[in-house]
Amino acid sequence: SSWKSLRANLAGSPSELRIEQGTLEPANQGQIHFDFATSLSKWSFENSSNFRASLNASKVSAAELAKAAGVTTPVTGDLTVDVTARGTPSAPLGHGTVHLGTSKIAGEPLRSADLKFEGNGSQVTGNLQVELPSAGSATATVEYQPKPQAYKVTLRAVGIKLDQLETLKSR
Questions:
Q1: pTM (2 decimals)?
Q2: Distances (CA, A) of 112 to 14, 31, 82, 108
Q3: Tens of pLDDT along 44-64?
């Protein structure tokens, strides 16, 4: 992957790390803005460390992000992200959305994939909605409780037409 520019203000000490007014510009299109700050204990991030973070990305190539993350599965489409979080790892607060518009993942066309999540201090809940152009839709809900490290996952697929999945058609 290639990037036009990375700009941020960085400050750190044994008790705090701040990355503020961050901007990352991909070579092709889009822009990513971010801020992050956390308390540290002798340069270590702990379960009791207070943090605040925000991430906003618009029209960023999913292929470029996947490549930068080392993901080898082919992906196309544009990604939009809006996330705000604060609190501690054991008591996160915040909310966010991630939207992938018309795209393909591993050759399978998607109309859209939308993730919405919220943290209320004791639980983080995420809802994922995936729309396939002619094969149906699926939703998933994930609930995570950080203190007991408990998970609950619910998956619901409505009207999935296996014969319409491109992955299966090609076999």
A1: 0.87
A2: 43, 20, 16, 12
A3: 999 899 999 999 999 999 998
